[in-house]
Amino acid sequence: MNLFSNAEFGLDVHFDCFGEVRGLLHDPLFLKCTDLHIYGNTELLTNEEMQFLLEKTGSIKKLKLNCLLSTDFNNKILFDISVMECHKEGFFTKDDLKNMKCQLISVHQNTLTENQTNEFIHHWLKGGNPDLTRLKLYHFDDDYIPNWDVLLKTVKYSKFDGKRRARYIKQELSNYRCRIVKFDCANGFDFERSDGKLATVIYHDKEFYFIVWHDRFLLKV
Q1: DSSP element (H, E) containing 49
Q2: Which end of the chain has fewer CB atoms surrounding its CB within 10 Å, N or C?
């Protein structure tokens, strides 16, 4: 009996050595892979190889890209993955983010301006990105101070109220599978759209969070 026949698992792919192990992915076992991390420093990930990886790991729910990408890489093939994290600078534009169906999005080497972030907030307020639970933008300059007048321009917002939502969320650390920590959202700014959905934006330790409270008192992201 194959003990792994019904098991879901994560897979780390060192893309610089991918040619040596590519053939192994034809094993149907890899169709059970739900968590894929692709990393490397020398080889370019192409559209064809990305499509191959998605086909051979047919149950991907979480994808982390930390490798070099071809100049014509089509990021739109990744828009339906539930949990998406990318380390390439400028990989997702403002318009890309608007069209993604992901629940969790993490963007390292952020290039969005505060005006573009404000535009995304208004896009969400109009009903956009209905599946989004959290957008996280990383790597701001050491001396960066958020200009909330720009980020929240024409947004009707309020401070934290424990009667409206929970103070903490639980989230998995990016570099540690299955390590869950609590994150304090008490210093965030809250705003509500016409359907009653509540969201919070907060800046902490070089990270900008956009959090959607699908359940205002039970949120694990």
Answers
A1: helix 47-56
A2: N
Contact assessment for residue 190 and residue 200, using Cβ atoms and an 8 Å cutoff: yes
Burial 107-128 (b: 16+ CB within 10 A, else e): bbebebebeebbbbbeebbeee
pLDDT in tens, 150-189: 999 999 999 999 999 999 998 776 554 556 778 899 999 9
Residue span of the structural domain in which 91 resides: 9-157+190-213
The CATH code of the domain that includes 205 is 3.80.10
* Tens-place pLDDT, residues 94-129: 999 999 999 999 999 899 999 999 999 999 999 999
Other C-beta atoms closer than 10 Å to the C-beta of 205 total 6
Residue 178 in domain: no
pTM of the entire predicted model: 0.90
Q: Which phi and psi angles does 25 have, rounded to 5°?
A: -75, -5
**What tokens were used for 211?**
């959090």
Residue 45 included in any domain? yes
Question: With contact defined as beta carbons under 8 Å apart, do 64 and 38 qualify?
Answer: yes
User: Contact, 201 vs 188, CB < 8 A?
Assistant: yes
Of 64, 69, 67, which Cα lies nearest the Cα of 48? 69
- Structural domain count, the chain: 1
